[in-house]
Amino acid sequence: MSPRLKSSFLTYLIPWKTCFYSSIVLIPVLIVFNFYGLYSNQFYFLKVDNFIFPLVTILHFVYLYVVGFKIRESEYPDVPMRNVEYGMYAVLAIYIFKCLDTLYILSSFRDFQAHIIPETFLPLGILIFALQVFLVLLTLTAFRHRREQVGVYDFDHINENIDSWP
Hints:
Strand content: under 5%
Distance between the termini: 19 Å
Order of helices and strands: HHEEHHH
Shape: elongated
């Protein structure tokens, strides 16, 4: 049997279903805000850079589906799930980069205060930053839920966990 961990404060604070549904709602909202330009108060749909985040979030949706399926069916972790999670570590790095990028843009408010900056700059910038930080927190929580509810990746005993009868 795959060892499972005790519940942590983070997973007690954000249960799996809350983490799952919050992520499902939050990612599309952040995809829309990804096309928004804080300095210009406009949406940019023709910039190629703005399409990186939506493409990366596809892996996040796959990970949420896989973890949800493993929890629902009480299955053990497997190699494809591990590979998806390793991809999610790269996605988490991109999420953190987006947070830092938004924070950098927000910190430049004083530098451009003499120029015409839209009134929505600070409120929307703070909202976007808070949502991005919440997405990072939800991603880390999803990792923890996987470890606690599905189990750790212990492939030394993989043959013990295989159901050979259909």
